[in-house]
Amino acid sequence: MRKNHHIYRSWIQIGIVFAFILVPFLAMLAFSAIADIALSDLFSDITSSIVRIFIAYVIAALLAWGCAVSFYRGKISSVALPIFDILQSIPSFAALPIAILYWGESNFTVIVFLVLAIIWPIFFSTVSSLRLIKHDWEETIQIAGLKGFKKFIHFLLPASIPGLITGSIVGLGEGWEAIVATEIIVHLHSGVGNFFLRFSQDTTITVLGMLTLLIIIFSINKLIWLPLLEWSHRRLEE
Amino acid sequence: MFPTGRNHSIPALKNISLAIETGEFFVFVGPSGCGKSTILRIMSNLEKEYRGTLTYSPDLALSDISFVFQQFALLPWLTVYENIELNLIAKNIPEPLRRKNIQRELKRFHLEKFSSAYPKELSGGMRQRVGFARALATDPKVIFLDEPFSELDSFTAQELRKELLHIWEEQKVTIIMVTHIVEEAIELADRIAIMTPRPGEIKKVLRNTLGRPRIRRSEPFYTIEDAIYATIHP
């Protein structure tokens, strides 16, 4: 990695970064005061949701990336890609009530459905970035005789990172959408879904809660994903 | 074969029969669309969709082959050093030997100062030097070159052609090159295959016995040049 790839170009940017860390906390603080909820309750709800999303994201990203690298090209892709296209069209949330019957009102159920929501944008975005690999690069790898694991590490991984990151941003957006709904339906006793369920009678708190969540998600994007996206594109610039 | 639609294809090349000697400098010359790049890709095993047979001499393995690309084909996320190293890693060459070979090539192509630079920071000429360095670092027996000078300014091209000739004379490698520039073919080649398009055919294989170094502005040079143009446009 090049050392002069500054993400923080100046003090102003460091200030902006601090603001993005500070504002969500202030928003939570203000919200807990207005809604008259203990800050610790609010914090633990948000944290448990973030942990669930994080676990689901790691599983989804590994699966999606593995499948994308295995099926992006060749004879197998003409069979596999239509199958994946059908799979992603399945309205999986219709199976949520049945899943609760089998797996109970558990973290496991929530995470499975989160994975199903997050995985597809990552998969398709990674596949498309792999299919757009320059023919020249592939010939280089072929002439070098790079195969198997080495090809994975030195070629397919770096070449697929922009797609992986773009897909992650979209996938996590869907993940946040899905987690509120899933936690409400699964009746977990923690998480933002549970929070919104508890205050379902109160429009003000619901709206303010959505606003706070928005600020948090936006800050995470701004702090983590957008710099990663920029970095990954800069790496592949010629 | 180039597919031209459902169930139809037209041959990119037709009736190609050719033997290339060890240590030879062989050049294919012809206008665009004559299939010269395709022939190079078939011979270097990059292109596998063809009808016919391709035989290497028994002492030649696929790992003895290198390729220099027209558009350099450097991987943008790797530094100059790492781009050269990738071919050596693929061939399981141990790290000390890798370093030694890379340093040798960096020196040869005056790239020492740029070993940790990324391709996008280099000019076209520098990038193609990296392309050459990468091709040579594995000590190949055969080097294929696909219009390696056509993206470069004429000064850099001239310099690299000289360097290439020097390497060829010194290391006794076999060089098989494609170009659309007739003068370049005459300057470099032992034998020149003159190709014409639709379908891609070898019209004539010309032996070039001019002594080296070859002077472009000379009577014998012009004679060969005329003969080549006459073959392409009779």
**Overall geometry of chain B:** globular
Low-confidence stretches of chain B: 1-7
Q: Quote the beta fraction of chain A.
A: under 5%
- Assign the structural class of chain A, choosing from mainly alpha, mainly beta, alpha/beta, alpha+beta, or little secondary structure: mainly alpha
Report the strand count of chain B: 8
**What is the typical, i.e. mean, pLDDT of chain B?**
90
Mind summarizing the main beta sheet of chain A?
none
**Total number of helical segments of chain B?**
7
| Poorly predicted regions of chain A | none
Strand order of the largest sheet of chain B: 4-5-6-3-7-8
Main pleated sheet of chain B: 6 strands, mixed
> How many β-strands of chain A, per DSSP?
0
What does this structure look like?
The complex is a heterodimer of chains A (238) and B (234). With 238 residues, chain A is mainly alpha-helical. Chain A is 82% helix and 0% strand. Chain A starts with 10 loop residues before the first helix and ends with a helix. With 234 residues, chain B is α/β, with parallel strands linked by helices. Helices cover 37% and strands 17% of the residues of chain B. Chain B has seven helices and eight strands; from the N terminus they run E-E-E-H-E-H-H-H-E-H-E-H-E-E-H. Chain B has helices at 36-43, 80-90, 95-108, 124-137, 154-171, 182-188, 219-232; strands at residues 2-5, 8-10, 25-29, 65-68, 142-146, 174-179, 191-196, 201-207. In chain B, the strands form two sheets. In chain B, strands 4-5-6-3-7-8 form a six-stranded mixed sheet, sandwiched between helices. A two-stranded antiparallel ribbon of chain B has the order 1-2. In chain B, 39% of the residues are buried. The interface between A and B is medium-sized, with 20 and 24 residues.
